[in-house]
Amino acid sequence: MPVKKNRKVRPAFSTQNTKQTSTGNNPKNLKISDELLYLNKEQLKIECRKRGQRTTGTKNELLQRLGKTMAGHGKKKDATGNHHMNGGSTTQAKNKKHIDIQKKEKEKNERESLVLWRKPLRTVEYFIRECIELATIYGKKILASKVILGVISLSVLLLYILVNSKGPHQALVQGAYKKLLWCSYWVGLGILSSVGLGTGLHTFLLYLGPHIAQVTLAAYECGSLDFPEPPYPDEIVCPTDGKVGVISFLSIMSKVRLEAMCWGAGTALGELPPYFMARAARLSGIDPDDEDEDLKAFEELEKKKKNHRNELTLVEKGKLFVEEIVQKVGFLGILACASIPNPLFDLAGITCGHFLVPFWTFFGATLIGKAIIKMHLQKMFVIIAFNETLIDTALDWLKLVPVIGEKLQVPFKAFLNGQKQKLHKNAPQATTDGGNILGSIFEKFVIAMVLYFVISIVNSFAQSYHKRINKKKNTKASKD
């Protein structure tokens, strides 16, 4: 009889012991263990099979076996043991997440389809609405700040009075006003280059590069850099006093320094939006999927760097190289990246914003790199490329190209001669068909680039408005 009593007591003790060993002091494990006690033997065998345990033995032995593996499989048990109680809510959560992903993907496809060549009417409509929205937002901010509004109003009033009032100061004011407009023009081109087209090479090729080339050609043709003003800088005409000086490399660089530095300062200002956006996202915890595509790409690159570094492409490795330089070296790293023509520099702004690099560290290094170091390198390249001796040598070598060499040499020479003749006032304009063909090709190229620039801005604004209205809809739906 005592032996039978012991046999009867042992299962109950074993069950209690399993409960204590498997749960400990963790409430989650206690809840799961209680649910295991309500399972029958076949269900317990299924749980043991899932955990790689033996499925033989009595119900109490199966409970003991499961109790030993409960601590390391809390999450797995929660998904299986709680199936009857929480299965519905888990499935619902998965379905909701799947629906959200599909919704975001659909919104992204709709946004990317908002381009002029697919949906011209809607794209133009959204572009206009985005312009009105931005004007309203920033107008309200300016009106809300009485100090800024007062300073702007006073500055405009004083400038108007100075420009239009007559007196001995008129010549000085007119000169300063003209110089200010000239600098603003180049700063604006630099900003548009960084913000609108990304790489910074487009407006350089369209405006600053040709301007430096024109000054270089004029300097060698006129034998002087004393271009009368007016018409320079609107138009370059050789001086008529007959004075000829020595043209040096440094004197040409000095002549175009103001335009180049203003353009470089504009490109530095254009790099600020990625910095501020990444900084705001880091401080407020904004989801990159809901904000900027560059931020999303940055987050994906960070994940890929941690989990799949061996699968990185060459471009992604270049981006990581820029990121590591900026992150580890700081001011000097930003300066190095900004001092060379670098299409990946947007990532430097995002990296600095993400890691909360101080504003003046980022902007100071970017301004010095782009407006001083990089611009001098680009000026040197253009001036050397358009050196008169070098051009003549290049044209002589062009004749050696098989079949088409001589055919290309004639129109290029005609084009250069035509450009030189334009520099002399009242000179006969004798240009050949070859020169006209090259000139018309270049003009069409410039028109095409400007059109692409305008179209990209229209598409970008339209997509921003689409993102804005979808964000408002989602916020309203979440509140409801």
From TrEMBL:
SAP domain span: 36-70
Segments crossing the lipid bilayer: 147-165, 185-208, 347-368, 445-462
Coiled-coil ranges (or none): 291-318
Protein name as it appears in the record: SAP domain-containing protein
Basic residues composition bias: residue spans: 1-10
Cytoplasm in keyword set: no
Pfam families registered for this protein in UniProt: SAP
Keywords assigned: Coiled coil, Membrane, Transmembrane, Transmembrane helix
